[in-house]
Amino acid sequence: MGGSKISKMPSAQPQFKLSALRRKNELFCQIDMWGFVSIMLALLCMFLPITTDTRSVSVDRPPAYHSTSMPGALREDTMQISVTRDGNVYFRNDQIMLQDLPEEIRRGVRNGAEKRIYLNADARTKYGDTIAVLDQIRLAGIEKGTLLTEQPSQ
To answer: In what order do the strands lie in the sheet with 116-121?
Structure first.
């Protein structure tokens, strides 16, 4: 009778070892994605500033030594008018005829935009083109205007 008890114990140990091995394998079968996620996050942060500044038309602004920062010009509802080197006029991002500019400005004010125009004129724009845009702004009834400039590189 004593021999039968001994024979049952060794058979229980191999089953325990198999179940312990199965549990170990389950823990190592997962793929750790944190390395991939961290690399993708780093790439996103690296390329995000390049792609987010599509708000305004590209012009070479005139340099001004005593210019001040205008954070209001970066808001989404601002009325920014750009005059390019060849005399084209853009209201926000859309090219517009000079005669239609006062009505677009009035529509922007009715929709809740600030009653201020941010003029983004190219440094090589003809003086007459800029004055024509300023006349249209006055016709729209806007009193406050800001000329956007750049700090000169030293």
So the answer is: 94-96, 89-91, 79-83, 116-121, 144-147
